[in-house]
Amino acid sequence: MTPIVILDAGHGGSDPGGGNNTQFTEKDMNLQISLYQYNRFLALNIPVAITRTTDVTLTSEARTALVRNSSARYCISNHINSGGGRGSEVIYSIYGSPTFPQLIQDALTAEGMPNRRIFTRTLPDNPRLDYYFMHRETGSVETVIVEYGFADNALDANKLQQDWRDLAEGVVRAFCTYAKLPYQPPTTPTSNPKPTTAPTLAPTTSPGNGADWKQEAVNWLYDQGFLTDEQWRQQPDQPLPLWAHAVILKRLFEKLKP
User: SUPFAM superfamilies, alphabetically (predicted)?
Assistant: First the structure.
């Protein structure tokens, strides 16, 4: 199915990005946010694509080619800022509209991340071209770059570390409003879920110390591509929602097809 929107998890692999601190690296936070949004769009039955699902290196040319050739109408490129500042920024093409960026900023503000600015930028030597490669080389795709906050600002960094799911959900909500698509909030909380009691499963082999066998099984699901949302990797006892079970079964069926 042709995607309506493509998500870009900025940086990755040998490129950690600049929005790093002791709590997270930009490339990992970008991927967490993007995978969360990817699964939310799937749950909302919105056709979606993504530039990367793992920690791989993408050249700027390869990244923009994925977006340009995706047939998507929109692209959300996720990033974390640095360099001194506070709050989120949304950057749009000089040939675009501030409508979608404003909806994103309103949603992020509602989730507790202050709004720093919305802006466009031209090449210094050619005012008819966008400054940013993601705008200049993604063709007719309406691309917005979302900087969720500043990694070198303690308030922003703590907000991102604790509430990145809420911020990611805000952008999903803003997109649905802009594209006039039905939106339903997630059936499970988007903030860090509280531990719940789950039945204990006995391992079939001697696993060694602790619950290593649980993590090994969960990691296998990610390695096989059955799970992609990183929020579940460190929560082996957290029950999955019904839609996630459906996605896993669908991917398993597709893998088994001749």
Answer: Zn-dependent exopeptidases
Tens digit of pLDDT for each residue in 115-165?
A: 999 999 999 999 999 999 999 999 999 999 999 999 999 999 999 999 999
Using H for helix, E for strand and C for coil, what is the string for the chain? CCCCEEEEECCECCECCCCCCCCCCHHHHHHHHHHHHHHHHHHCCCCEEECCCCCCCCCHHHHHHHHHCCCCCEEEEEEEECCCCCCEEEEECCCCCCHHHHHHHHHHHHCCCCEEEEECCEECCEEEEECCHHHHCCCCCEEEEEEEEECCCHHHHHHHHHHHHHHHHHHHHHHHHHHCCCCCCCCCCCCCCCCCCCCCCCCCCCCCCCCHHHHHHHHHHHHCCCCCCHHHCCCCCCCCCHHHHHHHHHHHHHHHCC
